[in-house]
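Run folding on both entries below.
>entry_1
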Amino acid sequence: MPPWRVRCFANARGDDLFDRDYRAQTPEVRAEFRAVLNGLLFQEDITGWCRPNGFDRLSGKYRELGKLRFKVANVQHRPLGFLRTRAKDVHTVDLVDGTRWEI
């Protein structure tokens, strides 16, 4: 199985925007986010990256973009990211938008 790599988006000044928004969340939201992401990362391959397991790809021209899906205290959270993989290379998750935490 190829190794996983998780990266966060930084702007031109080097500010990690995802981390900034992640740290603004409650401890419960951060814990659930880590639990969902870790559950996905521990899967053998990306076939398990689907809606019931906490990940949902967008459709149409945004089909390369996906969202982690979880709920805390009856509030849905959907941080956005890209999942990229190559057969013998590295699976990469790029977390790009932490501003969509609450829906």
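>entry_2
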Amino acid sequence: MASYQAINPRELASYADQHIGDNVKVKVTIFNIVDDQDLQGVIYGRYDAVCIATSVPFSRIYKGDVINVYGTVSCCDYPQVVAASPEIAMRSGLWIL
């Protein structure tokens, strides 16, 4: 996890294009579960939306959950964090994707 750096939420929301390829850690409140590999959420404490895509299916993530996402920023209409390999660290709010 050392290669993932916390990013200022304003920085990710405003300048995501400048961070494409960066490994970041961001706290997200889930508002939509698209399918078993794609989520949508808002940056915790803000209203900026992010899309989260995983390379393998996940389970036990629900609307309203607050999760920490470790992943790589990629391009989309709004910031997208592509999480490479899901591993559940603990159920109480911390998920490593």
